[in-house]
Structures are given as structure tokens and as C-alpha cells.
Amino acid sequence: MNTLFAIALVFAGCCSNVVFLELLVRDFPGCGNIVTFAQFAFIALEGFIFETNFGRKKPHIPLSNYVIMVTMFFTVSVINNYALNFNIAMPLHMIFRSGSLIANMILGIILLKKRYSASKYLSIVLVSVGIFICTIMSAKQVNVEKGATEEDSFYAFMHWLLGIAMLTFALLMSARMGIFQETLYKKYGKHSKEALFYNHFLPLPGFLLLSTDIYRHAVLFSQSSPVEVPVIGLSVPVMWLYLLMNVVTQYVCIRGVFILTTECASLTVTLVVTLRKFLSLIISILYFHNPFTAWHWVGTAVVFLGTLLYTEVWSSVRAAIKGEKVDKKAE
Fold first, then answer.
1. CA atoms within 13 A on the CB side of 114
2. End-to-end CA distance of the chain
3. What CA–CA distance (Å, rounded) separates 218 from 210?
4. How far is residue 200 from each of residues 48, 67, 99, 184, 247, measured CA to CA in Å?
5. In the list 114, 201, 220, 301, which could disulfide-bond 44, CB 3.0-4.6 Å?
6. How far is the CA of 37 from the CAs of 77, 204, 277, in angstroms?
7. What's the predicted TM-score (pTM) here?
8. How many alpha carbons lie under 13 Å from residue 81 in its C-beta half-sphere?
């Protein structure tokens, strides 16, 4: 029952979160900092009350290690959201972040000297090719849509290329953080909820560096058209309502993933998150009519095929079927 509940939270929370994020980004493409700050503040407040008991509970993992992890986590979160300022469409943003498993694997080979099966290496190739196809197709759209003149077209392309570089850096940094987190859990034990709190609480002072941008967007949000909140009957600026719903759904999504990690094997968690990303992508394309060519669909299919190959879903399904057959024969 807990597993089904967690899966429902992941799909409902994460897919809804993508919708509200895109509603925010479509009107204010540069609002990534205020969105990130609101998410961090909300999750940190919840963790301070319910996880640390108002600061009275000591952490299991030394704070010095959390500072390192938090620096990476803060950097990844800010860069991922800020990349949306650079002509990066939401579908491409989601496809790029789907390469996190493979980025983790590549760094595992380089840093931890790990070795994998042939199917794992094939999955790297598939995901890389899929992301490359989608990126090239998006690059062509940037050139077509953006410049009336050759100079404008070049500027738009370089602007977009900078966004791609930011996503690539964030992807690799996220993978490095995952490896660091894995080593901490092996040494001190798995304390996911504690890590969730400190990852969101410790970076809060860092947002002072972004305070000017956050304040500017807070003013812009306050000037958005008012909308009446159901049940309460109060009128609030629509952007603040979108932001609130984005924060709440982000929390629901993260909580769902947390419950799932305590109830299921990592393979199941990976599969659920992968399917959730695919559904979010479909929603983004259909609901917001984002440009998505046949080649984008090919690239997306290759990315998710590579991810599923990495998680060895097919082998698990075959083993489960064989197990059922054996059971039936035994009966």
C-alpha cells in the first residue's frame, strides 16, 4: 500500500510541478531564482519542524560533509533553473535531465574505476545519441525562430549554446553529488530525510547573492493579474498562486520519491522516476503546444530506451515471468 501511495505521489506531484513551472516560465522566463528559493525555503521549514525538531536533533552525518554536498546541490538547482533563461525549451530541459543516470555512470567509471556490462555501455551510447538528436533539432529551431538578420540569428544561437553548456555542467555536477552522497551513506548510514533537510536549509544564505533578482521577480509577480482562490474566496496575483502550487507539488514529488526509496529497490525507483519524466514530457508538449518534431520523438524514444536498458527492466520482467511459470508448474 505504501509503495502504491508513493508512486501516486511521485506521478501526481512531479507532473503537476512541471505544469506550474512552465506556467511561470512562459510569462517570466527569468524567474528560476525565485522558484528555486521558494522551494528551498518551504522544504527547509518543513524539515526544521518535523525532522530536526526545531534544531534539537543532532545530524547523523557531520555538517562539514553536508556543506560539500549542499554546495553542489545548490549549484545544480540554480543552474538548472537559470538555464531556462537561455532559449531552452521545457521539453529539451527535461530530456537533458533524463541523462542523469548515464552521467552518474560515466563519472563512476572515471572516478571510482567501475566497470559495467556491455548492455550498460550500450545504454550510454543510446542516451547520448538521443540527447544529441534532440539538441541538434532544437538548435535548428532556435536559428529559424529567432533572427530576422544573420547577426540576430548568431546571437540567439550562442545564447542557446550557453544554456546547453549550463545544462551539461549541471548534469555532471549532479552525478558527482550522487557519488559523494553514496559514499557518505556507506560510511554513516542512509539518512535520506536528514540529507533532504540540510540540502535545502544550508544553501538559504546563498540566495542573498540572488536577492536583487528574486526581489525584482517578486514585484513582477505581485503585478500579475489577480485570480480568486477557490474555497477561500480571496483574490491573489496569479503568479503567486502558480508559485505556491509549484512549491507544494515539488514537496509532494520529493516526499513520494523519499517514501519510494525506503519501500522499493533502486531499480523500481529509477523506473518510476523515468516513466514520470516521460509523462511530464508528454504533458508539456500536448498541453502547452511546445514545438516537437518527428526527430524530437525519435531522440526522446532513444533516451528512454537507453535509460530502461540501463535499469535492466527487460531482464527483471523476463525473470518475473519465468518465476511465475515455475510457480505454476510447481502447483
1. 13
2. 27
3. 12
4. 10, 11, 23, 17, 13
5. 201
6. 10, 8, 23
7. 0.73
8. 23
pLDDT digits (tens, 9 = 90+) for 173-218: 988 887 887 788 788 887 878 888 998 999 999 899 999 999 999 9
Query: Partners of 228 in the beta sheet?
Result: 235
Predicted confidence at residue 148, as pLDDT, reads 55
Per-residue pLDDT at 144 exceeds 60: no
- Long-range contacts of 161-165, Cβ-Cβ distance < 8 Å, separation of 24 or more: 162/86, 163/83, 163/84, 163/85, 163/86, 163/87, 163/88, 164/88, 164/96, 164/135
Q: Can you read off the three cell numbers belonging to residue 75?
A: 549549484
What's the one-letter identity of residue 44? A
Write b or e for each residue in 102-138: b if 16 or more Cβ atoms lie within 10 A of its Cβ, otherwise e: bbbbbbbeeeeeeeeeeebeebbebbbebbebbbebb
Residue 177 identity (one-letter amino acid):
M
Residue 289: the pLDDT is 75
